[in-house]
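Why show two proteins at once? Because comparison is the fastest way to build intuition. When a single record is shown, students tend to memorize it. When two are placed side by side, the eye starts asking what differs. So, the first record is below.
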Amino acid sequence: MQSTANNVKRSDAQLPPPDSFAWIGDYTEEHWHPSFRHYHSAKELIASEHAPELIVFSLDSEEQDIQLNELRKCSVTALSKIFVEHESTLSPFLSNGVWNEDCLDAFEHYRIRTAKVNLTYDDDPKFKLLTYLWLHDELLTPRMQPSKSYLFSYPLLSAFGIELGETERWLAALVENDWINKDTLTNRVRYCASCQSGHLNYVDVCPKCESIDTKVQSSLHCFNCGHVGNQEAFKTRSSLTCPNCLTKLRHIGTDYDRPIETSKCQSCEHLFSESLVVAECLHCHVHNPLDKLQIRNVYHYSLSVFGGALVRRGMSHFTLMPSVGDQMSYSQFYWLLEWLNKLAKRHNMHHTVISLQALNLAEFLKDKGEVEGMIRLDAIQERLKSVTRMTDACCNDSEGGLLMLFPVTELKQLSAVIKKLENVKSQQHDQLLQLELKVLELPDDIGSNVEEWLIDRLNQVKANVL
């Protein structure tokens, strides 16, 4: 897993009791180590019924990979902070890094976040993944496996019980729900349309009979009789002569020329200039036309703003049909915005969109600490519910700001709403968080991509700082 966390300074006095620390394998004590319970294997730890928050592995690579997988499968240790003394094949995907003194800072960060989890995840791998990404502040990372027909896998998802064949569909559903984001595109692969194997051999074949028995040859075309054949058949001792009509060919362009077809099929004798390329599956031996191959993009995935709020606040706050002031997903919000825009054009109506952004969010979280800062932000979100009506809609944008949609509301009617937003700002104890307000009016020419339109328009309008 790839970390995106910021270090949190630890206080040794705040470290949990020894039961929270487990060491598996050979142990060498260091002065900065906490007090560990020692185990020979992951099975021994699981059988002990202890629930350590921090686990360190010191095993040989092959055995370490097996036992890492066992701990991520176990519900008690699935989300624990796990480090390794030495990297192994699966440790970048199932552990949280190599053990060193800085890991205690990362562990304190993890413990603080653990206290803020309100999402029940035990029986649902979707919620388990969201919670994992929140606790460890990491990316879900794909593993390349060239020896396997599927080529790429997500070891963490396999440990959480997701079948390989379901991974792509499963992740797409989480993206559709706006719980996770596609982060980095790491590769693009093609699979057999018949058996979904990624082991393909790209072969040049005859475009007529699809035989692989083709060769490049130089051909000549006799203008006198129209005969086309191999150049070698035209050669005599001192000149070129058509083997069909016996005409001597003296001048290229007048007596003969070279056809553009430069290859010949040895099976059907067809002449051609460009081969047909097909992808032969090395598993089921089906010849796939290139346009029939299944194309899949391989991504790193990150937790979305909406997914993070879901972990912190629990599923009860996020139903399919949000209650007054609750957030809906991007896809719901964009669909509603597009639909209301069509209604506005048809019936001469007016709607308003408000964007609320925290200008100094990074500085605010740094000053208050991440957890305290998140508590403050959640409190502000709760107060923002007083701004919205039963018929209004809101969602978080990709930058962590808030989008609010006010149906049948013109710009001149927004004075009461803006006053309520100013009151929300003034209710902060220290006034540290600066809020930026932007307003858009519908109808507008949105086009086919609502998200792009919204980003472009918000970049164009003037902002007001509350």
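Second record. Ask yourself what differs from the first in the token line.
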Amino acid sequence: MTTQIIFIVWRESVEALLVIGILNAWIGHDPAYAPGRRYLWGGVLAGLAAAVALGFGLLEASAVLSGPGLEYFQTGLVFLAGVLIVQMVFWMRRHGRTLKRNLEQGLGEAARDGRWWTISLLALIAVAREGSETVVFLYGMFAAGPAIGTWSVFGGLAVGIALAALTYGILQLGGRVLSWRLFFKVTEVLLLLLACGLFTTGVGNLVSLGLIPYMDPLWDTTWLLDDASRFGGVIASLTGYRALPEPATVGTWIVYWSLVAMVFRRQTRRSNAMAVQTS
């Protein structure tokens, strides 16, 4: 569980730092844009406040609900976390290459019109989006996995943020150590595996709730890797692996990866078509 916390916070924080870094660099390249810096950090603080408010809202909802209602709520958030992860991966694949150019074009127009609040809005949206996704991801993982201590949670958050700052610094070296392209390629695979794990857990919850009938496992690979062991549990939570998968679990894997492959092919065809049009 702590490994998942570190990974999610690390990845989401790097994405937020990417947008904030672009905004800050744009402000710094011209002294006339200096007034925009306080709007930038105001937007960052507002985005953090929005994410914290969402976190408290989810905790309050959990406190109010009980019994089957709480189980349905938590299972729904497990699925929502998986959907958001997949959406994030494909959104970055589609917009990552033009993100910097699009942001700077919008900032240039805002500066000419004196609309400094646009910087606050962009920072707020970036931080609130990544922060809110992190909150939902973490809540979904807590609902899907075993209980974890408070210090482990805060420790994972601290390590994830520290690693994000370190990674961002390395990425800013210009690809001499680690490129943005490689970073997103590797982490998108890990995120898709993590989303598969969440969907698998969600379907398992539906079986436990009686919404999907239980059937005998199709095979047994506990001799190879037991998902009840410490190491196997980490692999299971990060990838959706099950040593004794039921038909519903195997069906989840097939449907999930088929849909992911279909969207990948569609995005690739669209990118190739756009490349041909611009060449």
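One difference worth noting in the second protein: DSSP finds nine helices and no strands in the chain.
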